[in-house]
Prior knowledge:
The chain folds into 2 domains: 16-102, Alpha-Beta Plaits; 139-302, 3-Layer(aba) Sandwich (Rossmann fold), CATH 3.40.50.150. The strands form 3 sheets. The protein has a 7-stranded mixed β-sheet, with helices on both faces. Strands 2-3-1-4 form a 4-stranded antiparallel β-sheet, covered by helices on one side. It is an alpha/beta fold. It is built from 9 helices and 14 strands. Residues 1-13 and 137-142 have low confidence and may be disordered. Helix 4 packs parallel to helix 5 and helix 8 runs parallel beside helix 9 (273-281). The two termini are 35 Å apart. Strand 8 (166-170), helix 5 (176-185) and strand 9 (188-193) form a beta-alpha-beta unit. The relative contact order is 0.11.
Amino acid sequence: MTIPPNKANPFAQSAHYWRVKFLITSDAAGTAEDAFNDSALAVSGFETDEAKGIWTFELLYEEAPDMDDIKRRLMVISALHNVGLPELDMQKLEQKDWLAQVARDFPPLSIGRFYIYGTHVKEAPPHGSISIQVNAGAAFGSGEHGTTRCCLEALEWLSKKRKFRKILDMGCGSGILAIGAAKLWKVDVVAVDIDPVAVRVTGENVAMNRETVRITSAVSDGYSCETIKRAKPFDLIVSNILARPLIAFAPDLVKNLTDDGYAVLSGLLTSQEAQVLQAHLMQGLKLEKRFVHQEWCTLVLKR
């Protein structure tokens, strides 16, 4: 779930809400999630048919939505991914306690030693866990996604192999991976994203987890920002984005990686694994381990 920056309190009670639902294929899910961040009060997507690769998306609005605008955005997504135009279901909802809804939809999540929980959870984290608290109103739910889950599993696996001195989270989203890495190794982490909303949310979650000393967040189009240039090279780069930018960024990743560095690449389907892997093998990296959750794949590479 993602919340646009002008909606600081998405759970403030309004007389009515409007919900728009549609189905879309899994390969278009990431694009669909990004497409409505600037217009909807909340955007949530979840897999409803694993065998057919179908996701259900729900858009929440405080006012009656512009259905023509929604259709135009979906036409762009359909053209990009060569899929049919989804059918839309709009429903006017009565006043509702949306925080309670979030509590039901996003319970705490345990992934290895990591324990991800929202601000709506009042119970203390399990003893000995690496706890990551995430703002329930802004991007919480990211940890449940297969890519995030596999990345956290990869980080824990790497923690048993070696220590890292400086880490980059490329495409930080809600900041879960940056926070997890900072807590796991207690080292400096640079967290960047092309989306200013994601960087803002990361900053909020970093502060909530008391990691502002270790984690620096910034807006960056790929590896171009000054924050990365000043901090490089990194001995661990985590990049949970999409297959196409992973392939495009492969040369830049290697330029910013130490000679003994590791990379964790995610956001790709198992059907895209060979292409992403080949792009990085050509840059001199080798595959160390892969993690798979449903149709999602995460690769651990070493220079």
